Amino acid sequence: MYIYPSRDNKYDAVILHKKHHGHTLETLPPGSVIGTSSLRRVAQLARRYPHLKYENVRGNLNTRLRKLDEDNKYDALVLAVAGIHRMNWHERISQILTPPSCLYAVGQGALAVEVRNNDKETLDVLSKLTHLQTLICCAAERAYLHRLEGGCSAPVGISAEWQDNKLKLEGAVLSLDGGQCITDEVCHTVEQNTSENDDMEYLSDISTTCVIIPEYLKHALQCSENSGIELANMLLNRGAGEVMKIAKEMIEKS
């Protein structure tokens, strides 16, 4: 994996049924049904909005929106903002859920390009598309999830921000019902050591998350990934591994 173009919006959004126009999750009537297929979202939202009910909803985005508008089963959907944007449904967004109320999924809103690690010509061409902030944040997020040994369905959330060479990470591991929530955060300096040049060397064996990078980004990538691993270790030391184990067992039984 090599190129990370500029990331789209990484947060989750609420699309309300039209009968609830003007509401938010907080003001919806008790018992309102929220449709989402994400265990991460359910676990976090159940903690913050216990007056609501959460039901699984399947299908592509068109199918989910049709179910909201026509089936009269759901009062709202929670979806990734990036997916809503790509469908040009901007006007349907009623509320955007940002940290700390809802940490997003690792890599949410980001795209990556896979390249052969010995194809220098292609790497040189595509290197111009790399968005450094996206690379640094996604590298930290993926290292965090890798250390937790979590998958795409695990109730694990993350928030990563890199500004003024400071990388701040906040992570959470939750039980499926949201009753348990282990959170922590780290903040480290992540600097880009040198600038790119016309004859760049590419490295593919220093990353825990299978990222090919120009040599000049080696230090930044390692600092980013180490930050993600550190955050994961902090959560594991506080019992996150057992919480995830129980969640996995419950998922397998369901």
So, CATH architecture of the largest domain? Answer: 2-Layer Sandwich
Mean pLDDT score, rounded? 90
Task: Give the overall form.
Answer: globular
**What are the segments in which pLDDT stays under 50 over at least 5 consecutive residues?**
none
How many distinct folded domains? Answer: 2
For the CA atoms, what is the radius of gyration?
20 Å
Give the count of helical stretches. Answer: 7
Number of strands: 10
**What's the main sheet like?**
5 strands, mixed
Query: Mind telling me the CATH class of the largest domain?
Result: Alpha Beta
Which secondary-structure class do the elements indicate? Answer: alpha+beta
Q: Percent helix among the residues?
A: 25-40%
Helix and strand succession?
EEHEHEHEHHEEEEEHH
Distance between the termini: 34 Å
How much strand content do the residues show? 15-25%
Q: Which sequence of strands runs across the widest sheet?
A: 3-2-4-1-5
CATH-defined superfamily of the largest domain? Porphobilinogen deaminase, C-terminal domain
CATH topology of the largest domain: Double Stranded RNA Binding Domain
Q: Could you describe the 3D structure shown?
A:
Helix 5 packs parallel to helix 6 (218-237). The mean pLDDT is 90. The chain is α+β, with helices and mostly antiparallel strands and 254 residues long. The chain has helices at 39-48, 61-70, 81-86, 120-126, 132-148, 218-237, 240-253; strands at 12-16, 33-35, 53-55, 76-80, 95-97, 156-163, 166-174, 181-189, 202-203, 213-214. It has 2 domains: 2-6 and 107-253, Double Stranded RNA Binding Domain; 12-97, D-Maltodextrin-Binding Protein, domain 2 (3-Layer(aba) Sandwich). The strands form 3 sheets. A 5-stranded mixed sheet has the order 3-2-4-1-5, sandwiched between helices.
